[in-house]
Amino acid sequence: MIALTVLLTLLRELLRALLAPLRLLAYLPTRHRWRAVAREVLDTAAHEPPLPPEQALREFFATRRPDRGERPHVFVSAGEQSGELHAARLVRALGPELRITAFGGEPLAAAGADVRFQLSEHAVMGVLGVLRQLPLILRAFAAYLRLLRDDPPDLVVLVDYPGLHVVMAKAARRHEVPVLHYVAPQYWAWGPWRMRRYRRAVGATLTILPFETAFFRRFRVPAAYIGHPLLDQLAAHPPDADAVTAVRRTRTLVLLPGSRRAEIETNLPGLVRTASALRARDPALRCVLPHENPRRTALLRERLAALGADWIEHHEGPLAPWLFGARLILAKSGTGSLLACLSGNPTLVVYQLRGMLSTVGYHNILSVPWIAAANLIAGRQVVPEFCFHGDDGWRRVEADALRLWTDDAARAEAQRGLAEVRARLGAPGATDRVAAIVHRFLAATPS
Fold it and tell me: Is 75 within 8 Å of 155 (Cβ atoms)?
């Protein structure tokens, strides 16, 4: 029976993949309407605080569930390493009174979960990545179905990784097991047509950006804002004050080209070009490229040498001291750019598109007016952002970088906007809020 279910699910997902171009074509004529909706939601969210979880998730807390025993059983799944860090913190916060089984890796096991499948150790991205790891994905799904049949949890908590996790969520719902998704997918930006399927799969979703709840609630998905994990990270590991002071002694430009190889190879040449232009105007400028992943050290140093940029310092380790001490940050769009914005220092967000397909997608599929999280949170542009194909876009980056390097009035305005973004994110404590939601759900009297 499980083998048949796995086969049918595989066929259904393959069919969905084959039909994806048709769904996209059907979306294109309506994209202007959705962009208007997105703009309206962002404007509203910028002026209205998100509902508290107890109010936003009222429907979810009332979910009917069977009484499976005195010690609640929670299943937690993390499909890749960054999500597993969130999941491991959650398991610790939930405490020993819950029985927790999991798909993940060593961090989840160290946190106290009974890891049934090493899923995060084999994270995949993109169509080719899925095809290469298809046997492993099918084994993971079969193991999950056996868990739902033989040891059904009281609650399934899926962390990020929407591709496989939406399929797992649908399977849980068929077994009448409630599903909570932690770190909502960015369907509001890339594919609002997927919201209907998502609504049928999950019981509730938890967002890490305050404006996201309005998008999901518009599609009748119970959603609550629980804060951004970066705030927890900064609270637990604040930048060393002496290190920040040392960086500030020199006018420092920080470059963040991204964490993946393709991102580094695409964005680093333009970032170096921009840094060179600033250095020509300010010879005393210090340029630093910090990076947390030691596996990228060789690549970064090799690329800097190939670009003749031996004057750019590469430092392996925490980013925060460099970001909080910088005069200006040039960051590839992503989590690193939001961390840069949380430093409060003027930041430019860049993203160089690779190839015609990504360029067409950016201009025709993206439904929100900005790519930088800071701008989406504020509901207006508080940091300059540049998304482009080819080298011509870097000239615009250079002009704005020079403005923020030299113009004190522009710098002060940027800092005011970033302070607004930081305030809208609220207080740290995302993990504790998720744990409180889980405990509240499990404490409810089963119907």
Answer: yes
